[in-house]
Amino acid sequence: MGKIFYIMGKSSSGKDTIYSRLLEDQKLELGRIILYTTRPIRDGEIPGKEYHFVDEEKFRQFWRLGKVIEARTYNTVYGPWTYFTADDGQVRTEEKDYLAIGTLESYRDMRAYYGKEMICPIYIEVEDGERLKRAIAREEKQEQPHYAEMCRRFLADTEDFSEEKLKQAEISPRFLNNNLEACIQEIRQYIKNTTLQL
């Protein structure tokens, strides 16, 4: 039976880059679980790659059918944005291991849905000052920077990923992303070691 490796971390911790790099690693052979979101697409994003971009009605349709595994809605400065994982046939753990990305809350819901033994957390850490610098640099590259939303997310992360909540969710190990290549290599080894134990 395969595992689902679940990447999470505060905003601008590098988790999206790490997620992409691990998926590209053909030696790991990880399947991907693509989340859904009702937020607007960002510059450079491709539908079906980073996310499935849907409207509120599509989300409600999944909900009515009982296909929503986990969902969270953020009241942003641009209105509510919902992110969710759906049981849409993507995951076949009898065939392979998977890589997913989300929040601590979504990790807990996924663990409740699939079972604790199926979900392996990968928590990415970066010092807050460095994260803020990275967040500003990313927004500066956008055609229409959303600095207010960036600040909201940065502040919300303090509560969302508090030490108390991390301990309650039994999150370990943690991976420090001061050096991207070293961090990715450490996570690769963790994944290989975990799959070898099956």
Protein architecture, described:
It is built from seven helices and nine strands. By secondary structure, the chain is α/β, with parallel strands linked by helices. The chain has a five-stranded parallel sheet, with helices on both faces. The termini are close together. The relative contact order is 0.22.
How far do the termini sit from each other? 8 Å
* Total strand segments: 9
Q: pLDDT under 50 segments (min length 5)?
A: none
* Count of alpha and pi helical runs: 7
Q: What does the overall shape look like?
A: globular
The helicity comes to 40-55%
Rg (C-alpha, Å): 16 Å
Task: Please trace the helix and strand order, writing H or E for each element.
Answer: EHEEEHEEEHEHHHEH
Largest sheet: 5 strands, parallel
Strand content: 15-25%
pLDDT averaged residue by residue: 92
Secondary-structure-derived class:
alpha/beta
Spatially, the strands of the biggest sheet line up as 2-7-1-8-9
Task: Describe the structure using short key phrases.
five-stranded parallel sheet; four-stranded mixed sheet; 40% helix; 22% strand; 198 residues; alpha/beta
How would you summarize what this structure contains?
40% of the residues lie in helices and 22% in strands.
Topology of this protein?
Blueprint: E1 4-9, H1 15-24, E2 31-32, E3 36-37, E4 52-53, H2 56-64, E5 68-76, E6 79-86, E7 98-102, H3 104-114, E8 119-125, H4 128-140, H5 147-160, H6 163-168, E9 174-176, H7 180-196
Parallel strand pairs: 1-7, 1-8, 2-7, 3-4, 8-9
Antiparallel strand pairs: 3-6, 5-6
